[in-house]
Amino acid sequence: MLEFFSYGCPHCKDFHPLVMAWAAKLPRDVSFRRVPVTFGRAAWANLAKLYHSLQATGDLARLDMAVFRAIHEQRVNLYTDAGISAWVQGQGVDAKSFTDAFNSFGVATQLARDKQLVKNYKVHGVPLLTVAGRYAVIGQAAKGLADLLPIADELIGVALKNRH
To answer: Which of 17, 44, 49, 104 is the residue whose CA sits 20 to 30 A from 68?
Structure first.
């Protein structure tokens, strides 16, 4: 399972609590990974770096939803290095550890992998769930974001059945 998203996307903000609660209940043999997208936007590239840096410092679980709230509710500018640095320090993140992660080869490598995944999966909008590298959860019959999750469950079932 991959979830393509961006902190800059208001729909991703609304979807985040739903998808995370759903992902926590996935079967043990189903992995769930989030992939931040940039769509070539410098501001969103910094948000992707923020995501991976928080992951590297171990602060992601604590601050994941807070990033969405800061951007969409509090209107905090998290699109620049300086804005990100000031905000994470205000959240109690160790400044040196975060800066080291933010500027690390590991985060740069992860961003390159994300970009390749976005290209391979032909991602044109977010949020987007994909299953087993074969299925995109489109949800044309969905009336809201929550309706995507039962569709994803069905596709997971198909993928698990077909792998044997």
So the answer is: 104
Sign of CA dihedral 101, 111, 40, 121: negative
How far is Cα of residue 150 from the mean position of the Cα atoms in its chain?
A: 20
Q: Which of 138, 159, 134, 152 is nearest to 19 (CA)?
A: 152
CA angle in degrees (0–180, nearest 5) for 60-62-68:
75
Cα–Cα distance for residue pair 127/96, rounded to 1 Å: 32
CA neighbor of 52 nearest in space, from 42, 41, 64? 64
Query: For domain 2-162, is the CATH number 3.40.50.11740?
Result: no
Predicted model pTM: 0.94
**What is the tens place of the pLDDT at every residue in 2-11?**
999 999 999 9
pLDDT in tens, 15-33: 999 999 999 999 999 999 9
Q: Which H helix or E strand runs over 110? A: helix 105-120
